[in-house]
């Protein structure tokens, strides 16, 4: 066979194959066209390839090269047609009923602790307390020293605090704050009396997690400094706070038990009656004169009260949550109940 004749048959073949693939309108007809042209045994490409044997020997390299080019072109045309038509393996889609009501998008909501914090800020705001924030990484002065916790005090034990490793090299040790009382100091250092603030935030202690302990939890700290502040003011504020938070007006009572904190004198543990029992809420007391002096206040001029309550404890009692860990496992099935 003359070379020109063979090349003409190749061109013809490419033309026809491309037209056949392009005109296929279903994956079945495309498959039929594929077998017709590229079928391994008796496809047209195969047949034309057999004609290669009859080409003059001298022309074979040219003819063979052109054959390969045309075969590639045909395969590319098939790939393109397949892509346009799909392979027929896609899921068969249900007919779409446009009259069905839409599926609502699930909307998230605030974490129960965040909700509790917001409610607390709201209530205390109405009592005239401004919410302020303080850093979670604290120094020795704000977490201990200014709060009348001397160097020898066991509360400073490295086993009871998260000291930062880098702090070893520093002159002043740094730690994750173990209480929000730090914010009292920060505020008083920068504001002359009177002061009426709350601070809500995370605190950290190296406790092993169990149903009632977690190495991170939240406190609400309150501080009121003015002339002539008394324990009666403290008790009224806490009672109003509990009544507003839990509802039930005259059924809510607050009880003080004598206690000790280095930064208050006298100091009390605060309990609230709740569903027939007393629930521990935290600590409170009259700000110790040493603390007032440490921030430059004159204890002869002003007095004040402070309190620090556990946010988780209050939130858990309100919602009947029995394990603090559930709050931080981020299981949406649990959290979406609140
Ligand atoms: N800081 C104390 C604690 O974490 C709680 C506390 C007690 C805060 C008495 C106060 C207070 O402001 O007056 O255990």
Structure, explained:
This protein has 338 residues and is an alpha+beta fold. It folds into two domains: 3-88, no CATH class; 112-335, Bira Bifunctional Protein, Domain 2 (BirA Bifunctional Protein, domain 2), CATH 3.30.930.10. 39% of the residues lie in helices and 20% in strands. The protein has eleven helices and nine strands. It has helices at 3-23, 27-38, 44-51, 60-85, 112-126, 140-143, 181-190, 231-246, 289-294, 311-319, 332-335; strands at 130-131, 137-139, 174-176, 195-204, 216-226, 254-261, 264-274, 277-287, 303-310. The longest helix is centred in the N-terminal third of the chain and has 26 residues, at 60-85. It binds 3,4-dihydroxyphenylalanine (DAH). 3,4-dihydroxyphenylalanine binds at residues 179, 181, 221, 261, 264, 282-285, 306-308.
Task: Name the descriptors.
two-stranded antiparallel ribbon; binds 3,4-dihydroxyphenylalanine; 338 residues; elongated; single chain
What topology emerges from the helices and strands here?
Elements: H1 3-23, H2 27-38, H3 44-51, H4 60-85, H5 112-126, E1 130-131, E2 137-139, H6 140-143, E3 174-176, H7 181-190, E4 195-204, E5 216-226, H8 231-246, E6 254-261, E7 264-274, E8 277-287, H9 289-294, E9 303-310, H10 311-319, H11 332-335
Helix pairs in contact: 1-2, 1-3, 1-4, 2-4, 5-10
The protein binds 3,4-dihydroxyphenylalanine.
């Amino acid at each position: 066979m003359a070379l020109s004749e063979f090349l003409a048959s190749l061109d013809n073949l490419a033309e026809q194959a491309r037209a056949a693939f392009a005109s296929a309108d279903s994956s079945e007809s495309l498959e039929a066209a594929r077998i017709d042209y590229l079928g391994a045994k008796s496809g047209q490409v195969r047949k034309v390839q057999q004609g290669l044997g009859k080409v003059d020997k001298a022309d074979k390299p040219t003819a063979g090269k052109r054959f390969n080019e045309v075969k590639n072109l045909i395969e590319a045309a098939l790939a393109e047609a397949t892509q346009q038509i799909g392979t027929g393996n896609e899921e068969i889609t249900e007919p779409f009923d446009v009259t069905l009501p839409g599926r609502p998008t699930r909307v998230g909501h605030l974490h129960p602790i965040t909700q509790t914090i917001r409610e607390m800020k709201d209530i205390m705001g109405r009592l005239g307390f401004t919410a302020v924030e303080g850093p979670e990484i604290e120094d020795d002065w704000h977490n201990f020293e200014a709060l009348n916790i001397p160097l020898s005090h066991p509360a400073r034990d490295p086993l009871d605090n998260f000291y930062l490793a880098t702090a070893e090299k520093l002159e002043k040790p740094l730690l994750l704050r173990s209480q929000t009382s730090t914010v009292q100091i920060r505020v008083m250092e920068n504001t002359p009396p009177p002061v009426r603030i709350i601070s809500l935030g995370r605190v950290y202690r190296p406790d092993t997690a169990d149903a009632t302990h977690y190495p991170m939890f939240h406190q609400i700290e309150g501080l009121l400094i003015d002339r002539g502040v008394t324990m009666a003011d403290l008790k009224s504020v806490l009672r109003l706070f509990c009544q507003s938070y839990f509802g039930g007006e005259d059924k809510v009572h607050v009880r003080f038990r004598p206690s000790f904190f280095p930064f208050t004198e006298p100091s009390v543990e605060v309990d609230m009656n709740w569903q027939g029992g007393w629930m521990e809420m935290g600590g409170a007391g009259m700000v110790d004169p040493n603390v007032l002096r440490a921030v430059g206040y004159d204890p002869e001029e002003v007095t004040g009260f402070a309190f620090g309550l556990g946010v988780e404890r209050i939130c858990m009692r309100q919602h009947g949550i029995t394990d603090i860990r559930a709050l931080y496992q981020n299981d949406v099935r649990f959290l979406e109940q609140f």
